[in-house]
Write a structure and sequence with these properties.
This protein is an alpha/beta fold. Helix content is about 40%, strand content about 20%. β7 and β8 form a beta hairpin.
Length: about 230
């Protein structure tokens, strides 16, 4: 099958999936000899006219028994690096099947969205995404909790500054300072949330949490996680 036919078939499949899931989006397929070239091309061409997308959303890396973990991880990290170099926001979603089951069994008003705040662009984007979620029918009853790491003597100040910002932006949320926070504190504080927004960064070929640890170390112990 020629490249043109494969591209046409893939776009048709995407179109059918979008229609089935009632998603307002435009399908776009890029044909390329490898992932590196395909992703670079796609990241620079998507959009409609002068309106260009600025966010890459993808699933967390999945490992398979027959695939070498190191090689797969390196390709995944390179993909994220490519997106960041092209000045894209990167949003990575991690969820296990049991997390989806638990979420489906939780009513909207009983859902809590945890946003970990580190006074950076990633935290601000995470808060915006959490707020936009509460504007949808499925999440309109959920509450937002903003957790901010703080030193022992600055918890009240951190909370007051954050509450002022939230009120200024008319975002309804509670603020909770977390003293001497680390990855374990994230797990203990957010294991019962419906979804957790957590900033992360890419250093070399490593994906790190805000504390400098490998981000995958805390994911299995958390519910749905959105890395920003």
């Amino acid at each position: 099958v020629g490249a043109r036919a494969r591209r046409r078939d893939a776009e048709q499949q995407l179109r059918e999936e979008l229609e089935r899931d009632k998603v307002d989006a435009f399908p776009l397929v890029v044909v390329a000899p490898d992932l590196a070239q395909a992703s670079t091309t796609l990241l620079q061409t998507w959009g409609v006219g002068s309106i260009r997308a600025n966010t890459v959303a993808l699933n967390w890396l999945e490992h398979h028994d027959d695939a070498p973990v190191s090689g797969t991880s390196l390709r995944y990290a390179r993909l994220l690096q490519r997106a960041l170099r092209l000045e894209q926001h990167v949003v990575v979603f991690d969820a296990a099947p049991e997390d989806w089951t638990r979420l489906a069994e939780t009513k909207s008003h009983a859902r809590r969205i945890d946003v970990w705040w580190f006074e950076d662009d990633s935290s601000r984007l995470a808060l915006l995404l959490a707020y936009l979620m509460t504007r949808t029918d499925e999440w309109d009853g959920a509450v937002i909790r903003v957790l901010a790491p703080a030193a022992l003597d600055s918890g009240q100040k951190v909370a007051a500054n954050l509450m002022y910002r939230l009120e200024e932006r008319r975002i309804e949320a509670t603020v909770e300072p977390v003293l001497d926070a680390d990855a374990q504190a994230v797990i203990e504080s957010s294991r019962d949330a419906a979804i957790v927004f957590l900033p992360f960064r890419v250093e070399g070929m490593r994906l790190l949490d805000p504390f400098g640890d490998p981000v995958e170390s805390c994911l299995p112990a958390l519910p749905l996680v959105t890395l920003v």
